[in-house]
Structure formats: structure tokens, C-alpha cells
Give the backbone structure.
Amino acid sequence: MRLYRKEGNTVQILSFPSENAEKGDYLLIEDPKENRALITQVIDVQFASVPGILEELLRDSTNNGESVNGESLDPLEVTSHVTIIQDARLLIGKIRASLENGKLTTTSSWLPSRSQSTIKLLPTQALLSLAKINHSLPVHLGETKEASQLSIDASALDGKLNIVTGKKETGKSHLSKLLALSLVGYGAPVVVLDLNGEYAHLGYASDGRRNEHHSKIHVLTPSENFKVTLAQMKLRVVLNVLVHALNLPGTSAREFRRIWKFLDERAALTLHELGEAIRNWRCNQHVRDALFSRYYALVNSGFFTDNPSEAVSLEDSFAKVRSGGALIVNLRDASLVDRQIVVEYVLGKLVELLTQWKLRAVFLFAEEAHLYLRETYWDDVVTRMRHFGVFTTFVTNQPDTIRENIYRQADNVFLFNFTNEHDLETVSRAARVDAETVKSIARDLPPHHCLLLGSAVKDFPLVVRVKALDVQTMGQTRLFFASKN
Amino acid sequence: MIQQTQYTPTTTKYNFPPTLEDATLPQRLIELSIQTLKNTQNHSSVLYQPYTDAEPSQNETPEEIAPVFLGQTSLNPKPIKLKPNTEPTTIVAVDVSSISLGETDAGTLIAIRGAIVWKNSAHYRYLRIGPFPFHITEENKKQVYRLFRQHSFLQAPNSHPAGSAPSLNHIAARMGALLERWLQTITATTSHHSLLLWDGSLTAGTPDAPTQTMSHLLETARNRQNTVLAFTKLTRLRLNGHRLTDLNSACKPPYLLPIDGYPTATSPHNTIHFLGNIHVAKLSEGNCSFRLDIDQKIPSDQAIEATQRLVGNDLLLEGYPETLRLAHIYSTFTANEVLGIQRFLARTHGLKTIQRPNIRRLLFGPFGKGPEGG
């Protein structure tokens, strides 16, 4: 391999087919005279622009049909050298760091010698060692192309905003489960907003037996084993539900506030009493109608109960996972409005508990959050709630549903394959890496291969094949023809 | 009585000749190539790349000797209308390319490659011979040249003044011409009842085409009932100042315009001989017409018959035979191949190619014309 060009932090390296470098590989460009080296990652492999190649291909293409065939008498085997030139490659690389006297620096302002530099593949293990990616709390993710094990440190997810994204059936949920279970294993409380009921069986192995996590997995299914009384709710949370989930107008919300306070003072915060109060409240008929329609939405959600024995105390549920466990909020059979009601309640309660230091911190996994998280919550989750100790991991196959500012603030991005240009464009806004790397590498990732970006890998993008997980998968699509095969 | 050439192929299937691997020249070529390249190891292993390396096939066609037609020549040659004859006929085309790869301290590095293409029924088959790189120095050029002459001209070396080895500057073109003669000899002796297409003219008496050799070659072809048709792509042929290939005929292609006259050469020594009858050939619709030399010892009706068979049996692109076009394509060097050969030399003989300073560019800056002059 020979260094050909350097522009900014992009280098072009001439390589021959026998020098097997692929996208994602790291190369060490060593300048022996300078005693320095550049750590470069290959983000694209192109054909070298060789003069005369078109003529040669055209000439060879006449040989493909039946009408023209022949042979070459080339006893000196010069043609093999021509073929090598034909197949010469140009590796497009991004400079990730510089190595000076054995120490890593981020500067890439120096220029290695084109004639004297040597270029060799840098194994991932050597890179991890150089980058000092520590593993005091290893989360084993899988293996690299070189079949070496790759782990990140659980603390790299602590206090961080993470995004797991990729197109359908590439392994996003699988990785999310792996991360969630690893965090649980290190005693962290995890809350999963489970849109498709995929996490409900995390406590079971693939053969149906209980696994070591079973006692730490708590599944809350709204309107089944997860109901609350109105008395458990704060006015602020209820108003959030009514205004944001049920679109209650401002005037009506003011009347509702009065009704709520009226009932609260009388310790009569029940569904029944709320219905009666709305019925008898002296107010404009349109306001009454508006309040009634929202009231019935609350009643029909099945999430609220007047029976205290049916109600679940979220404080108690959080207490169970405080020293390691996952609270799975199963939203699988909930309607859009019901999901929003439940999520408003859970997040409101979470912030309340964190504010009161009843919880130290929580790792929140939100699958396809745009389907239940209201607009104004996005900034809340990544800024305000983060300071309270809610460390969110967004999981989505629609990257454009996550706002650009969230990508910019993401500390770690776990990126699976995308082929759609628009999706790639969206993801490339992540601030932890250049857009070219994202677009070029993510496009060619095979299923179950993930490009790790961000602080977990000290900003050295790495590709890993995510390891298999022995848990019951519930996220698989129900197939019509499966039973007929 | 003149015997009518029989074109009918001996078999209805392919009539391709055997490969040439059993011939002695390739073996000698290999040995010579290796031997000359070894010389480079005795000198500094630097190959200076010529500026013209991006122009492959620069020496592929020796400069045409343009005849001047004497007074009897008429300005209105009568076109001969051709009727395509589709009776199956084997067509054999030969072409050769040579290229200068660069210079060393002691000499010059060149490469040559030849191609033979056979057309039979709807099928084309080719044989590429080479590339053979050579390191030609003042010391070994006679030896190299002698070998080629022995094989291609079937006569003793130095039987003609042109037999002396050329200067190093022209060695690539000369050796290319020698390989071409050898391939023409091979095809002439191994083909029967075939049309032999050559690139160039049937002009003899030049260093590349001694008269005796060319006559012998044509005779060999004739003895095997072959007809040699030599096409010149770019001709300086003029009749009373008019470029002949620009003469338009009212006749619809395909047709031949025989140049009815006695051509003579412009050479002061008058050593040039025209062994073919010169025609302007427009074999298909299009803009192009070509100079076509047909062995003059073949009766004119046989020459016309041969051309009609060519029109009836081969594809014609702008009036140029596809078989000859393929021969050119398969022999010519692309820029990539030049790089490949230079890599071969670097790997096997440690020759490092470097670019000489461009004197024109140094002296004249942007006004320095030439390959890099811009």
C-alpha cells in the first residue's frame, strides 16, 4: 500500500488486490523519519483511476460472446501484472488520530512522507489497546471482522444519550436487549418503553426456560397488571395527558384544573367522582362536552381504576429495579392515545422520583418513540431529564423521526444497515463522526453488523457483528405462510 | 492460363490454423527478451519514462511511401462496382504494435505485441503474441535484429542495405515491423484459400519491407491460393494533387476505384517498388474510404473476386474490415498495459521508472508544447 493523497482529514491510499483492506478497517501510516503515524480508517474502496482501462475493458468485452474467442501467448506472464494494475484500488480513509511517540493525539495536521511511509493494517485489538478503551464493566457486544471479541464499557452508556438505528430486521432490538440486560447485570435500573412487546420475555431463554435475568424483569402491561388511580396522579401529569395526548383546549384545561382541585380538597379523586363533577360543574356547555369526551377517553383506556387494590404503585415497581432490574412497559396492545397516556404518566412519575432522589438514575430504552412521545418531550428527554438521571437510548428504524438536535447531542450511535439515501443523510448528522463515514460504511453493513460511533469507542468507529442472545424473541414478525411451510 | 483461385474452405467448420506455440520464433523471442532484460541489471536500474508513453501504438504504422503517378494516369478512374460474395471464405488479419517504454542509461526499453485474427463463418478467433519487452542497447541491437530477420525474411541478413540494425530511436518501430513480417509469413504459409488482410501497403524497398522479402511473402501466399489485401488507414496518396480517398464516385458502395497508371516513388534512389495494384476502396456506406493494395501478380478479376468475398464475409465498419480492426485492437497497447509492463520490469528486473524533467516545460513554461505542453 502506498500513500497517494491527503486532503484535510481524508487520505487516499493505493492498494493492490492482494493487500486485503476493506471498509471499516484501520490502517497505520507510519513515517519512520518523523517517528509518527496516522491512524486511518478505510471508509471506501474504489478502483484506482488507471489510464487506458476503458479501452482494455472494451477490448476484453469483445471476448465475452461466442462470436469472438481466442488466446494469448504470453510466456513472460506480463499480463498478470497488467491485471494487477487493472484491479488496483484506491482506499479512501479518514484520519482518526495521530500516534506520536506511542501516544495518541487527535491532531492530523502533519503530513507523512509519500515515498517513505509504510502502511499496514491495524488490528482492532491493537487499536483498542492504543485508544485505552477500558473494560472495567465490559458489555460484550460481539466480534470484529478479525474474529476478536469487542466489548464496550457500561459506564460509556452512563449519563449518555444513545441512538440505536438501522433499517428493519438488521438487529436493532437485539442489540438494545443486549445493552439492557448487560446494564441490568451491572445493577442498573432500566425502563423499557416496549412498543411491540418484544422485551416482555427477556426473563426467558430461547427454549422457554427461565434465565438468570428472570427475577429482574418486571413487565407492566397497561389495563392488565398496570392500572393507576387518579389519586396516584399529580395534576401536572393529568393535565399533560389531557392537553398533549388528548388535545384538550386551554379554556377547558383551566376548568379541569378547578374541578381537579375541588375533588382533591375533598379527597374524592376517583373516576366516578370526576364524571359526576364534570356533569354538575357550572360551565359553558362546549367546555363540558370537551371535558366529557376526554373523560371517556381516560375511562376507556382501561389504565385508570377506582379500585385501589387493582392499582399499581410505580414507586414500588421502581423500587424493585433500583438495584438492578428492568421495568418493561408493554405498549403492544395499546392504542395511540392510550400509549401516550401511559408514557406521560410513566415519565412524569420517573422525573418525580428522580427529583426526590428516590431513584439515582434510570436507563430508559424507547422503541420508536415518535409513536408515543409528544413533540415537546424530545428536548426534555435529552436535556432536562438527562440532568435528573434519565439516560435514554432511542431505538428506531425511521431515523428521520428523531430530531436533528438529538443526533447532534447523541453520545453513542449504534448504527445498523441503511440503504436509503434519505435515512443515511439523517443519521449522518450525528456529531461524533463525519457524514462520509456514516454514509459509506452503514450502506454496506450486513445484517447483525453494527457500526459503533461515539464515546463508547472513544470516537474510533468500529464495526462489530453483534453476538447472539439466548432470550425468547417476541419481536419477530408474525407470518402467514410460516405455518404452511 | 491463369489458375482461378479457389476460395472454398476445406471444411465447413472452423478452418483456424494451429496455434503458433510450436513455432521457433516465440521461443527465441522469449529467450532474447529475457537475455536483453538481464542487461539492465548490469546498469543502473532506472527506467526513464518517455513523455510519449501515453500515446500507445505511436509506431504502429510506418510512414507511408506515397507514390507519384505518371502522365498516363487519368483523373477520372472508373469505379468497379462490387457484388458481395457470401460464399464462405476464411479471412486472416495480422497487426502488430510496438511501444517505447522508456530509456535506460545503456539503451532503450521497448515492447512489441502481435495479433492474428481469423474469421470463419460468423466466428472470430484471435491469437495474441506477447507482449515481449526488450532492452535494446548498442551492443545487442544487431543480435536482436539478426534474429528477427532470420525468422521473418527467410533470407540471409544484410542482403539489403536496409538489413543493418536501425538506430535506437527507431528500434521499436523496426522490431514491430519485423514481428509483423514474421506473423505475415506464418499466416501466409499456414493458410489456404484465404483472404490475408494486412495493415499498411504493399510498398517494398523500405527498411521494414525489403523488396525480395515482400515478393517472396506474396508468392508464398499466392502458392497457397491466398490473396493479400493490404489496407492503409491514413493515406497520403494523391492524384494530380487530389487526395485519392476523397474522390467521390457516383457509384454506390461497395466499389473499388483502381488507380489506372504507373506509380513511381519519390525516393531519390528509386529503390521503392509497388508490389500491389493500388485502389481506393469504399466498401460500405459511410464517410471513409481506404487505400487498398492488392497483389499485382493476381489477375484483376481474381482481385475483384477477393474483394467481393471480403465484402460478403466480413463485417465492415465504415468500410474497414472487422477482422483487421480486431487485429489492431488486440495488438495495441493501452496505457494501463504500459504500466503493467513497467511493473513487470520493476518486479522481475528491479527497474524503477522515473520521469525525466520536461525540458520544454522547464524552458518555455506553459508555452512548451508537446505531450505535456498543454
